[in-house]
Amino acid sequence: MSNIPCILQCGRVCSKATDAITSIEKWDTLKNNTELWSGLDKFGDVHTSIDWDTGPIGHCVHDTCRLTLCNATKLEQANNRQKKRVVDECQAQSSSTSDISSTAATPSFKRLRSSLGLIHDKNKCVWCCKTESAKHPESKLVLISYDHAWAAFKSHTVALEDELMRDRINCLINYAADQPYALEIRYHHKCWFKYVRNYQRMSEDDKLPHMHNVTLREAQTIFFDNIRTVIFDEHELRSLQSLLRDYSSIVSRYGFPTSGVKSSYIKDILTREFKDKIGFHSRPQRN
Ligand SMILES: [Zn+2]
Ligand SMILES: [Zn+2]
Fold first, then answer.
1. Centroid of ligand 2 to alpha carbon of 128 (angstroms)
2. How far is the CA of 132 from the centre of ligand 2 (A)?
3. What is the pLDDT of residues 118-128, one digit of tens each?
4. Which domain of life is it from (predicted)?
5. Terminal-to-terminal C-alpha distance of the chain
């Protein structure tokens, strides 16, 4: 067994007689495992580039390569690396649309996919990523279709303990911009309870330990929630200048610079968030 390249495409040839693949079981194991690695950073192209009908005789594999391929932990790590790349890529894409002065991108596809994988599927629960099943009535998916639900959804991310889930959902919210219903985001009642309702029931003190790595979008959402309380619930009449002060004090708490923020920016983001539910009156001229 010499000069035959390792079937796992490590770039080296096989030199030992024991590298030869002789049993059909070993061949099938390689076939199944390379399929699990499809599209990942290592072994990602192996499965599709092999004609599996031609083996096992005449093929070889290094023991070390085979052990890496069959290692569940390594597979999981590769999957996590991939998910992280999807999120990074998505954040890079969405940072251009989150610029308040640009017009938001229109979500045009129902399945949001970057080149590396899926971050949104309208047929799956946004949290647990499971589909509906006819056998289990409690698995029925509900569509986010009301402003109050969307506002609650945008608020809960700061308390998500699973960082990957938090990144993915933040990415989705950024992407949805101000047309959330076009993406058709669905959820299970029990997942809504677990994530959103639990967050809403937390006291301010309970929330504090969760306030790490708050994104600008999350910090602005905290400001919007504050506006909901003071203006819509308590019907306070506030000047744009005082809203700017509120904005600066809230957003700077999470490490974002606010010195260059002007009241026109506050007016823009409030209009975008609340649409025609919020009105601005010009200041009466004093003579
Ligand atoms: Zn090898
Ligand atoms: Zn779910």
1. 4
2. 9
3. 678 888 999 99
4. Eukaryota
5. 98
